[in-house]
Amino acid sequence: MKYTCWALSAAVAAAISSSALAQSTEFSGDLRFGYYAFDRDERNGTNRDDGQWRLRARAGLLWTINDTYSVKGRYAARVHHEDNDSEFRLYRGLNGGSSIQPGQSTLDELYVRARYGNWDHRIGRFQSNNRLVGVAAKSFSRTNSTSWDVGWTDGIQSTWRGPNGWNLTGIIERNDKEEGPTNLRRAPLGFDKSESRATYYLALDSRETDGLWAQRSVDITYIPSSLYYNGYAAGLTEDYLGITGRLATQVAIRNEMTLVSGVELAYAPDTPRNAVMNLPGAGDADGFAWQVSINLMDIVPGHSLGFVHGENDAGWLLSTDFGNNASLTEVRYAWRPMSGHLLEARVRQREDLIQQRTALRKRSEQDFYVRYSISI
Predict the structure, then answer these.
(1) Any residues with CB less than 8 A from the CB of 106 and at least 6 apart, and which?
(2) Tens of pLDDT, residues 147-181
(3) I need a surface site. Which of 97, 194, 248, 272 has the fewest CB within 10 A?
C-alpha cells in the first residue's frame, strides 16, 4: 500500500509538471472512495458477511501531437482498508477476473489514437464499454472498470461515425495464452488454442439526448475455438458467439425530470453442457440473458434514481456485471452536487437461478455501498 500511494503521488506530480510545460498535454484524473458491505448465504450452507472501505485513484496524461494523432497513458490504483497486495504490475491479462487485486496498481490506458474524417482508431490498452443507459448502467457484453475495479482492453479499436448519430465500432482484443483476456470471460471458455488468441467484437449503436430513443444498439462477440463445451479435461472446443441488443427510450415528465426506460437481450447459440456447469438435467445450458432498467433522471436537478433487474442463464459467459446462472436486482440513487462530483448509494440482491447439483442451497447475496467520485 505504501508503494501504491507513493507511485500514485509521483505520477500525479509528473503529470502536473508536464502539463505546465507544454500546451499540447492535458492532465486528467479521478478519485473514488466509499464503503461496501455484503451478507452472503453460501451454497454449502454457511453464511459470510463483511464490510470494506475502498479507494480507486487514476491519473492520466494526454499528449496531442497534431489534429490527427494523440497518445494517452493513465496510472490506476485500487486500495482496500485491509488485505492489500501492494505492487505495480503491467499485466498482459487478468486471468479470468475483471480487475487487478486490492493494493495493486498498473497502467490501465496506454494507447495511440488517430482521428480523421469519420474515423477514430486506437491501438494499445484502452477502456471499452457498451452499457444499457441509466443510473446503474450495465452490460452483458462489454464492460471495463466497473465500480472500484481497474480493468482494460488490449487490442485495436476502430469506430466509424456515420450519419444521424450512428456509430460502427470494431475491436480485435488480444487473449493471452497463460493469463487470458483483459475482459471477464467465464468458464469453460479457454484460450490455449491458437485460434482463440483474439476476440472479435462488432457494434452498431446510436445514443441521443433528444427525441424518443435514448439508445439503440446491437453487438456481436466472437471467440474462435474457446468454448470447452464438455469441460477442459475433454479438450474439445467450439467457437463461442454472443449476440446482444439494447433499446432505451426517454420521455420528459415535468420540468427537467425524464423517464428513461431500457431493455437489453443477449443470446449465445452454442453453450456448455449442464453437467459442466454443475447443473441438473441433460443437454446444453441455456444461453439467454436479459435486463430491464427504469430510471427517473433529474427528479430535482442533479438527483436521479434507477432500478435494474436482470437474469443471466448459465450458458451466457461474457458479462462482467451479471454472474452466469444468476439474477440481479438493484436500486441506485445518484446525486451530482457540482460538475465533476458524484455521490451514489446502491442496494443489490443476487441469487442463483438454478440450484447446482452439489449445492445444499442456492447462493444468495445482499450488498450495499455508498461512494463519492471526483473527476478533473
Answers:
(1) 75, 76, 88, 89, 90, 91, 100, 150
(2) 999 999 999 999 999 988 899 999 999 999 888 88
(3) 194
